Amino acid sequence: MTSESNSSIALGFCDKPSVEAAELRKCLSIAQQRLLASEERIGILEQKLAEQTRELTESNQALRRNIAALEESKQRLREREAKLNSIFNAAVEGIITIDRNGCVVTANAAIKAILGYAEEELVGRSINMLMPSEQGVQHDRHIKDYIDHGHSKIIGSIREVEGLHKGGWTVPLDLSLAEFFIDGEIYFTGILRDTSQRKLQEQENREHLEELAHVTRLGLMGEMASGIAHEVNQPLTAIVAYTEVSLNLLKMPRLDTEKLAGILAKTHQQALRAGQIIHRMRDFIRSKTATRTLVCINQLIRDCIGLCSDDIKLQNIKLGLELTNDLPLVYVNEVQIEQVVLNLLRNAIEAMKDLAHDHPRRLAIHTRLDGRRFIEIGVEDNGPGIAAAELAKIMTPFYTTKKNGMGMGLSISRSLIEAHHGALRFNSLPGNGCTFYVTLPSKEQANGF
Amino acid sequence: MVFEQNNPVVYLVDDEFAIRDSLTLLIETAGFDVQSFASALEFLDCYDPERPGCLLLDVRMPEMSGLELQKALNERSLDIPIIFISGHAEVADSAKAFRAGAIDFLEKPFENSVLLERIAEGIHKDIYARSQQSLKREILQRLGQLTPREMEVLRLIISSHSNKESAKILKVSNRTVDAHRARIMEKLQADSLAELMKIAMQCDLL
């Protein structure tokens, strides 16, 4: 429609009364305007339709791409699962998953190698069947506690436990635990390593160290024999004199029983003293010392000083003791720790031997608790110290600066202390003495190992 | 226990209480006075050289050992007889002790009878030495009374010169020598030539 056709229609009515014509023209004009507006809208709609079509095509394409990607990731997931599965079953470590009730969900092939059960023998059954009976009861409680209260020190750490083999014997294991959730349900996965071989090796190392310690202990005792003999001869001399006096008293016409009783009591004391020295020495040279006991470290140090007192006296050494009272006990092999302390004392005493005659000699021994519940023993001398060139070597086996030394003392001492989860270190100021420090876990601390 | 000033005394030096206590009892039971000391220095502080006695001495002691004390006594010319007692006798120690004049070196524990015998021996030796000493002192004092001329005559007599020979050497008359000789005999309280010779020996003139 054009404006030209509109005007020809309008001309046809012009001869009629002009009011009508005017009306008509007006209506026409409105109709024309509406028409124009409709045409415009149609145009916009057409444009929108085109846009939507394009968008639809695009999203269709995107969808296709997504489907392809999904297919690919499905494939990758399948590959990953196959890979994990092969790792799961090829792992040397046993991997076993249980649900909240302690029932086995999965177990890998290594479980069979370690504990004798195949997966199908385990799935659906309680994990307790893999534990020595007394542990099984506790285990149920541990799981319940953990689910209820949510704290456990065993998640995420490695523990040493015992497993029960299908054949009925126990197997030493390292166990680490992880937890995970599927659909709100908790599961636990345990990874088990068979430590029999390692245990055996450790046992052999321990026995070896013990034998070596015994040999060096015998050597140490040999070096100290003359001093100890002197220590025993003192009370014996007193006993011989006291008993002679007692015999003389008995021959007197009037027996002074009070005096006699006093002398006999003193004789008794001296005999006990001689016996104690012998006991201490015998304990020290024992070969079998495998058991650990709760030991008061201050008493142990005093006993060691007792075995060296002759040398301390002879060299005119001033002994300074700073032993902290009320230290916690240590759980140790007493003889071995005694050996270490004795070794440090003897080293300190010998270090001061060649000082000038009038040079004051000081041997200071302290014990204290350090912040981390370790007990520290310090043995300090004011001898010549350790030459810089020797610092690195003194802990090595068979290295010695002594004329008659074997060179095993410090190296054995360090091994013994490390076997107790402790440490042996030293500080030396050349020309100004040397301090050795032994740290040992206290009883409370040792329980954690 | 009351100590008579000139009673012999057994000094005991040992740093070990049980040894001092038991040996003191033992030695007192045998009838001797005992003074015991825990260290060599303590002994040196209290030792009265005028009093006869003997010293029972431990070898190994802190600060000053028994051997060092023996040396210190020798250096001060204090000749008290020493019996060493030792917990572990070492040859080198005992040799040193004997060379420096020790009576004995007993290893602990020892036979009490041996110890008491040695103590008696030591005290006897000290008393004898002291009597010899005082005799010597007395003779030396008498010797000091001689004039230089008389000393000259005495030296000639004891080197076996007759009166005549002496007179000739001194270029004096026989009678003068006779007079000198008489005064010498008188001053030295000697009755015969033999006694004169003995005195001369004691005073190291021979």
Descriptive report:
- Chain A is an alpha+beta fold and 449 residues long.
- Chain A has 3 domains: 3-72, no CATH class; 91-194, PAS domain (Beta-Lactamase); 200-446, Heat Shock Protein 90 (2-Layer Sandwich), CATH 3.30.565.10.
- Helices cover 55% and strands 19% of the residues of chain A.
- Chain A contains 11 helices and 12 strands.
- Chain A has helices spanning 3-12, 18-90, 109-115, 119-122, 133-149, 196-251, 257-285, 297-314, 334-351, 409-419, 443-446; strands at 94-99, 104-107, 158-164, 170-182, 185-194, 293-295, 317-323, 330-332, 361-370, 374-381, 423-428, 434-441.
- In chain A, the strands form 3 sheets. A 5-stranded antiparallel β-sheet of chain A has the order 2-1-5-4-3. Chain A has a 5-stranded mixed β-sheet with strand order 7-9-10-12-11.
- In chain A, helix 6 crosses helix 10.
- Chain A is elongated and about 185 Å long.
- Chain A starts with a helix and ends with a helix.
- Chain B starts with 8 loop residues before the first strand and ends with a helix.
- Chain B contains 9 helices and 5 strands.
- By secondary structure, chain B is α/β, with parallel strands linked by helices.
- Chain B has 2 domains: 9-135, Rossmann fold (3-Layer(aba) Sandwich); 144-202, Arc Repressor Mutant, subunit A (Orthogonal Bundle), CATH 1.10.10.
- The longest helix of chain B is centred in the middle third of the chain and has 32 residues, at 112-143.
- Chain B has helices at residues 17-29, 40-46, 66-75, 91-99, 112-143, 148-158, 163-170, 174-187, 193-202, and strands at residues 9-13, 33-37, 53-58, 82-86, 104-107.
- In chain B, helix 6 (148-158) packs across helix 8 and helix 7 crosses helix 8 (174-187).
- The chains are: A alpha+beta (449), B alpha/beta (206).
- Chains A and B meet through helix 6, helix 7 and helix 8 of A and helix 1 of B.
